[in-house]
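User: I'm curious what two different proteins look like when written out as structure tokens. Can you demonstrate?

Assistant: Sure. I'll show them one after the other, since each token string lines up with its own sequence. Here's the first protein:
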Amino acid sequence: MASFNWPRRGSMAFYPRVRAKKETPSMKANGDEAKALSFLAYKVGMTQVTGKNAHKGSVTFGQEVIIPATIIECPPMKVLGIRAYVKDEIGYCVLSDVISDNLDKELGRKINNFKKPSEKKDKKAKKTDKKEVGKDYTIADFEKEMEKIEYFTLIVNTQPKKISLKKTPDVSEVSIGGKKEEQLAYAKDILGKEINIEDVFNEGTFLDIRGVTKGKGFQGVIKRFGVRIQRPKAKTRRIVGSISPWNPSTVMFTVARPGQMGYHTRTEHNKKILKISDKLEEINGKRGFAGYGIVRGKYAIIAGSVLGPSKRCIAIRKSVRPERTRGIQLGAVEKVLVR
């Protein structure tokens, strides 16, 4: 009788599997053009699209095919600040921020410092002795200290209220391309203004998508790692048969153990933008999307699946790995199959 072989289960690429520290993702990116290099959007749900297969190596080349796709809604981001980084002993650290005067009132829901102080607190502050407060940085100060500054980033906030999704915005950092002088010139021009998805990406661009996956809570080893279930006569079936020897009495980190499953920060590579549009009648059905509702703003259609549940904020950037055209590749979306 042949010996039974069962290779280890569960990837050790991301370990330990713990809950994400924050739900709003941020992505680093590099580019030669002085512009925002990433964008924040909200996942709507999945659908199916039709079009002609443009992949020459495929069996169905030139034929009309149906593929799964994900719709993400892309309300414009607003630039609320500029952040400068300098080199430190252990890496890069923040020098200071320059905040715009044109801020959304909803930011007070996310950042307590942006709440307007009450009149009572102002009166109390006048009575107490004034303490010395550090000088606020300005763009002119950044220009003076350009020699020690390494690079700049944008601090942006989403505007979900425009699409009636929620009131509290998501705040994150966005990288800027080009040299540091070009970065500052671009940031100075865009401060307090909006960034649309067409300013960052075009149709046909391959993307990297970063977000927090769907949470599944505390799970056992069978569901979490795919461990084989014990024989029917075993005392306990849904466990690891042996986790470690008596001598030495230790448990290796590679042994499958129960714990948190899902709600992890992950990045998916090479997802293609099939279409960017604001024609809502093409995708909205009578009931909208399950768990999301009706799409009300500009949207993008991405080939394949996207991590996370509906309504979750995701970050997208241009792909950093070589583009891989395999399987079915649509040249253009001819029709979206609305439910």
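Here's a second, unrelated protein for contrast:
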Amino acid sequence: MNKVEVLSPAGDFECLESAVKFRADAVFLAGTEFGMRTASANFDNQQLKKACDFAHSNKVKVHLTCNTLPRVDEIDRLPEFLEYAQDCGVDAFIIADVGVMELAKKYAPNVELHVSTQAGITNHLTANTLYNMGASRVVLARELSLPEIATIRAKTPKELEIETFVHGAMCVSFSGRCLISSYMTGRDANRGDCAQPCRWKYHLYEENREGQFFPVEETNQGTFLYNSRDLCMIEHIPQLVEAGISSLKIEGRAKSSYYVAVITNAYRNAVDEYYKNPKDFVLPQWIKEETEKISHREYNTGFYFGKEPGQVTDNGGYIRTYDVVAFCESSEGEVSNITQRNRFFLGDTLDVLPPSGKPFTTKCLKLVNKYGQEVESAPHAMEQLIMTTDAEIPKGSVIRRKRT
């Protein structure tokens, strides 16, 4: 069987490096125009070429998002953008607009065409039509169940790949198409500039009692009417593969490199473990636990099992039980050169996520700053330190501390 792809987000170069280090098969990223995440740093022309070269040198594919719905004043800029992306070596465009799709075929004929979830593909008729128009992959609407996906797989050419989101934030919309942000803030979600008003806390007031607010409360914290749970399908790799999905897509181009590292690592290991013994696969507990070590909202399984995913009504924030405190730049035995990210202390028990293998814990026994002085804590972000621990920390490891 063809092994399912692990597809990771890369909002900037550091996130790209994390995805590659933790063994994604492919990454999706954006240029400075036409992508659906303006909050991310994204990649200018020079960075895009560098990103493609770096990814390809590590046998990782690059999918470029070109999935906004462009207005008439933007169309004239598209041919040059598409041509340059092809010259950089981009492997695929992720496109939502059929007009952009036609331009891509003309100006970048060597780049594969993937049709975005923004297109709202919910049936085999649409998938087949897009395949006949030149698409090599469709990113299905997130509102589909596993039986519906299996039916689409059975009624489309085997050459047409199927991609679905399996992890990350979901919004109160149909496949990402939402007007709440535009109405309330003037920031257009369909052009990558969502202000996320679905995460805000709301109150109600009666027409004749202006200024008197009546909370519609689940708790005394207020109510978050539109606040979707986060998607997590880490425990359902067999069902995803059996439905015929080609690529497992991790949401998160606005997320940190730490998020990319942890979640890429979790799905990479889950997929690899599945293919070792597909008939009797049991997800190792440590992999499931990894998905809890990043900042996230309450998890659920989206629409895959035919139920509405529901909203988080009692809080608008995240569950956060671990903080990333450092990255290991190099090591020799039990002495590591690290770059600090969040404050930690001598004597702390640290949780280490290596680029390969299971996470493990170790104790911080000694800290030395760049002046050669022993210190009691690491308080300065991006500070370079030498740390001695009671276990060897591999180069490239993410170092975390559990919140107390």
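A detail about the second structure: The chain has two domains: 5-174+228-300, 322-402.
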